[in-house]
Amino acid sequence: MVEFQKANEMRVGSNGAAASTVIRWRPPTANVYKLNTDAALDVGRGIVGVGAIIRNHQGHVMGSTSQRLEATFSPKEAEAMAILRGIEFAVGSGLMPVVIESDSLGVVNLINLGAPNLMEIGLICKDVEIRICEGGVTFGL
């Protein structure tokens, strides 16, 4: 039983490496919403699932969305699309300003650094950048 518990304490990050700490959800400041996004891939069937959930500073769920897309995205493209669709959902629902949290640090860095449009993920990142520049959207730490 002890082995089982220890094995299940280990967390795995989006890059497949074991994470050394458990990261817990932290609420945003008052009058700000937190947007958490994620993506899942079924490569064999060409299906991507993206989802988002928005909570207030008390942790109450204010809204959520999920979409099934027929696409052949890479994992990073899928995560970027989840962020984009999450922002679109937040704006459309009037749940602004919003702080985004994603488990894909690589995608967040590409967005923040301005991924070249020539990269497969570049156009999705550019759409996210545009939404951020329109105001009311930031990334959390």
UniProtKB/TrEMBL annotation:
The UniProt record lists the RNase H type-1 domain at 36-124
InterPro entries assigned? RNase_H-like_dom_plant, RNase_H-like_EbsB-rel, RNaseH-like_sf, RNaseH_domain, RNaseH_sf
Molecular-function GO term, any one: nucleic acid binding
Pfam families in the record: RVT_3 (PF13456)
Q: Which PANTHER family does the record associate with it? A: BNAC02G40300D PROTEIN, POLYNUCLEOTIDYL TRANSFERASE, RIBONUCLEASE H-LIKE SUPERFAMILY PROTEIN
UniProt name for this protein: RNase H type-1 domain-containing protein
Source organism per UniProt: Dipteronia sinensis
